[in-house]
């Protein structure tokens, strides 16, 4: 008997190619096999398995359920498949291998033909386990890990095939990479390039066109410059008369993603070789491109295999293929357009830089250099965006594409004998060609002084590259007392840690956050006593007060905000054009205004906040946090259109802005209110990609499903989202603070089920929603709107009208909302009467 566990594209246990049925195919028993198959040693403790699969069961009941499952699985798979080793359960992969095992084995043997014959898909795609939140969260993490592994394997297979000049295999492997990550400029570029070499320039151009459409529709960005270069080269080659005819070359058998691809005659190959420049990362060019298998994160997950069904649709999700490889002669890449060259990111991508003992210095120096250079008119990627890249939420290629970066300043850190060495390289972002480099070294105790060395070198190199003067935010910073600098950096780190605790929302951790902030303030008091003329110290103290104010309300909040205003004003007095001081002072004015709503003091603070923020943006227009603060002020004044425009600017300048969720939610809400659910869906998706752990973006995802036209299976998807949110609510304290959220998600999913014709599930969901608000009259009124839509979808128009009339009578302000709600267009007149004619 030959069993196999198929993990990719769903979940099936098969025997000789046929799905296994019966008791062994029970969902929790299959999940047990998945957990064992995916663990590093193919073994887990019984307690761990019970926690994943029967977490609500009592200890003894959980052990009985596990024993029963193991018995049923051994009956199907044989006694040797599952072994008990002490308190651990072990799966024998030689008895029950998985399709992922076969892929990894084929790669280890460098058998690329076998590798490409194995179907791939998203890990456990569309498969879920009810009432197992721990397992669901593990699947999300494992799904991204598997996606990263597969992407790396197919990129390496494609490179091997190119090196061996096996074009059909290379095309098939690059197609697989593009299917897994349609945003990868490297994969798209190489696919189009190899298609060009094979004589199929039309297909290469089509791949590029689809990639362009994907980027513009989903991210609102243009393709990477290297992709554009390949497109131009392919078009130029297509315009050149070519002698000879192309002969088709068969792709590997049984590889759906690798359809037969034409191969060119020597003359046609020569033509495309001369027209297309060699790409960085191609076999004939220096391999300096970053490893694409580094975990990108949620940004790419949507673009994996399920996004489009079938190979043709997946290729239509690709679009501009970048770099090409023609003959074996490397050409010097053309310089990037000046507007792109002037988009800079300060990064640290070497493995040595990940040394945890160097984390504090690495982050302090990287952030410091970013801060020093961000004063310039050219775009500098924010620290939030760079952190997202370093944490694996997006890849470096995606960051380059998203921000259209032209230049990278890469810092590599290494400690030797109590000394810190930093290698600084200025790179062309498209080709990774080195423009300039230098090495600096200091004793660890004086390592923060390296910032001045790095900034001066980077500014000089960028001045030569950009052919313009490069400014430094604080030219005197390098001359400051090293002890004072260390106090500043340590205080800033404590403040950032405290802000992270505050964002987590755990009430019990608020005291810890307050202690961190008090400690940071104490450090700054000592620093200011040493050097009270350094504006950066006063700015940081104002930021600490802003964070402390966010922990409190009312009078104490206003008091702390006013203290912070005083510190920021001291910075402005020392440096009147210090944009960061003006920004934090504007935010503190706004925070104080929120604490004393109403009255003259409130109005004055808002005016002062608006004045400071606008002046700050005149000095440095790229401050995303200032744009977000302006957007919130505009919303409070009822200026929704301008608030949306400001929120757009915030996310354009920094997609991963701290507290940037608010900007995405402003954009989502405005689009939904305006009756544009597709735009609302776009902003919800972008917010979820930037903040994948934020509960609110799953809630908006569910809301959009109700607003958009029905699609097959959306009711099942809706309930999966509800289950995910239930899991998140247990782990996300902010979610539990949203009192109406649980009732709301059940009511929305019930409406989607009703629309799909599943009356039983719709009624059950609505009953749950009602039960959740049964003891709260205010929440019961909140539910009327959503409950009415469920009844409307169930065909009970009269009940829907009755509920809405009750809502309007209880809350007259909802009359205006109802009049413009797309969901109730068909019955609005029955509830509130015909709309009055416009004059």
From TrEMBL:
Residues 98-235 form the Bacterial transcriptional activator domain. Signal peptide: none annotated. InterPro entries: AfsR-DnrI-RedD_regulator (IPR051677), BTAD (IPR005158), Sig_transdc_resp-reg_C-effctor (IPR016032), TPR-like_helical_dom_sf (IPR011990), WH-like_DNA-bd_sf (IPR036388). Residues 241-299 are annotated as: Disordered. Coiled coil: none annotated. Residues 248-298 have a biased composition (Low complexity). SUPFAM superfamilies: C-terminal effector domain of the bipartite response regulators, TPR-like. GO terms for biological process: regulation of DNA-templated transcription. This is Bacterial transcriptional activator domain-containing protein.
